[in-house]
Write a structure and sequence with these properties.
This protein has 214 residues and is of the alpha+beta class. It has one domain. The protein has 3 helices and 4 strands; from the N terminus they run βαβββαα.
């Protein structure tokens, strides 16, 4: 699930809420070839096309994040009444701007990537917290790189070990890039740019600015 927003503790300053984008609901499809003789007669001639294709449907990884286009940030000074959480957020965004620049760069915060290794949530769930920058191509059509801080925050997987943790952390990077491509494809990135452009125009008309203080 992808969403667009800003700092949660200072929602009055940074609130880019966008409707969430949810992948299709998952389905389990088990197929045993050459077993039709065991089916009831009425089911032996069923059209395979009517059976869900597991390669085309399903939600294998649960992802959510807040997205801030760095090009929308015009000021990075910290308000005197900012909370410690918001102050840290501004400093992280400022560092991201200095490292990656503003164009084709998007800061993801409050990110979460959850894997289910079994069909029982209380056994085999692994969740990582994610924060950092995703970079797109010049046309903003494809994610080409990421600079993410990823840490394990929750798990119900007794057999988890360090090599698996590292393997899944790399899987998080790949999953976040795929999800951001889905975010772009769904049109949410364009809606985000249009929303920010309108807010900036409104602010300019009133002689103000939006900066980090939405």
């Amino acid at each position: 699930m992808a969403k667009f927003g800003g700092g949660r503790d200072d929602a009055n300053r940074l609130d880019f809420s966008q409707p969430s984008v949810s992948p299709p609901e998952g389905r389990v499809h088990i197929f045993f070839p050459d077993q039709s003789r065991y089916l009831p007669p009425a089911m032996r001639n069923m059209n395979p096309a009517s059976t869900p294709d597991p390669a085309k449907s399903g939600q294998w990884v649960e992802i959510e994040f807040d997205c801030l286009p760095l090009r929308s940030v015009t000021r990075t000074d910290i308000p005197v009444d900012a909370s410690p959480t918001y102050e840290q957020f501004v400093l992280k965004v400022k560092a991201a701007l200095e490292k990656h620049g503003a164009h084709n760069a998007y800061y993801l915060s409050h990110g979460s990537c959850r894997f289910h290794l079994t069909n029982e949530p209380l056994r085999g769930m692994v969740r990582y917290a994610v924060e950092g920058v995703l970079l797109t191509d010049l046309e903003d059509q494809k994610t080409i790189a990421c600079d993410l801080h990823i840490r394990l925050v929750e798990e119900t997987c007794p057999w988890l070990n360090e090599p698996i943790v590292e393997f899944l952390a790399e899987s998080v990077r790949q999953a976040m890039m795929v999800e951001f491509d889905r975010y772009i494809l769904a049109g949410d990135l364009e809606k985000t740019r249009q929303r920010i452009a309108k807010m900036q125009a409104d602010a300019d008309a009133q002689g103000g600015f939006i900066g980090m203080y939405l």
